[in-house]
Amino acid sequence: MRMSADERRESVIRAAVIEFADRGYNGTSTQAIAARVGVSQPYLFRLFPSKRALFEAAVRRCMEEVKATFLKAVEGLDDPAERVAAMGDAYVDLVADRSLLLLQMQMYASTAVAQAQGDAEVGEAVRALWVDLWDSVRAAGGMSAQEATDFFARGMLINTLLAMGFPPDHRLWEGIGVKGGGA
Amino acid sequence: MRMSADERRESVIRAAVIEFADRGYNGTSTQAIAARVGVSQPYLFRLFPSKRALFEAAVRRCMEEVKATFLKAVEGLDDPAERVAAMGDAYVDLVADRSLLLLQMQMYASTAVAQAQGDAEVGEAVRALWVDLWDSVRAAGGMSAQEATDFFARGMLINTLLAMGFPPDHRLWEGIGVKGGGA
DNA sequence: GAAATTAGTGATTGACCAATAACTTGGCGC
DNA sequence: GCGCCAAGTTATTGGTCAATCACTAATTTC
Hints:
2 copies of one chain form a homodimer.
Chain A: H1 5-23, H2 30-37, H3 44-47, H4 51-73, H5 80-89, H6 91-96, H7 98-116, H8 120-141, H9 145-164
Helix pairs in contact in A: 1-2, 1-4, 1-7, 4-5, 4-7, 4-8, 7-8, 7-9
Chain A binds a DNA duplex through residues 1-5, 8, 29-31, 39-46, 50-51.
């Protein structure tokens, strides 16, 4: 049961990704995260200075995993066209783990909220993560600027349809080329 | 000051669109909406049965306006290619009124939350609105399924970049063809 | 101009929630 | 086997929020 602070922080982040993905920033109580970890609610505040900091850690982790998924997909592939195709296919893995895509949606929404409230720092941090993902994916796929735009545009549509819960066999998925939108 | 319930409901919806767009569902208090309207908080519950119902009304209004913006853009145009281009340009109008695009983001995020909590009704309602928008835009532009997919994919990328607050002159806007991302 | 209807308010409540503070428990070195 | 530090808890607090209830004021109707 008892573990080092670093190990505990790690498991808290994992729980936070799931909870924040499912219920959003304001909809998630620190109590819910603590319960999922199996730890008391106040102890979270020993591991993270605030709820916001915990959310940021979850978001950072999420973006790292998304990036890692794409980079892993191109490993060992040399042909540029093949690499781009492999990254497109990698979306299947992301869709399979709902949390990573849903937490992205919550991140976009929460960032807009933070900025409307005058908090510029959150926006800067999120944009930095996003630009890093963009550039990494673009470089890994040897994409032109236009190709990268199209790639991410498709990704955002997938995110959106998934968030709304369109089932995998719905006709709106047809032009997209990745099945698995449901549940 | 005093007005009919219907007129008041109308002004409440307008206020709700702005507030929910800026602060999200859970981040917006009914007090904040009431204050913007200039009415007492309990009176909102005479006009709408619950906060959720008010949110749904705001979302419905938002989607109607988005749809109307696109349909208005093609008025008087006959050439199919011209109509598609006009709808693409119409995004400039939507970006100009931040609320409509940001409320969409909040809608996606909140729909995901509702579904994670077992509320299937919200998801169904939102999907119906979305399919209606999709079909209307597709019909108005005489688009193929693939063209519609590309059109909406681009739209979702615009939404996302806007939510994150990328300024209009940021390089990520380059491949998109609509300026006006910032504040 | 009185009666009835409709618009709107003030006070309150019970639940929830982030964060703090003060305390306890468990393992490790020696 | 004891002392010490890190892991973890219980209790609490100040604040917020959706929703209800009982009430008042304006408008319409006859």
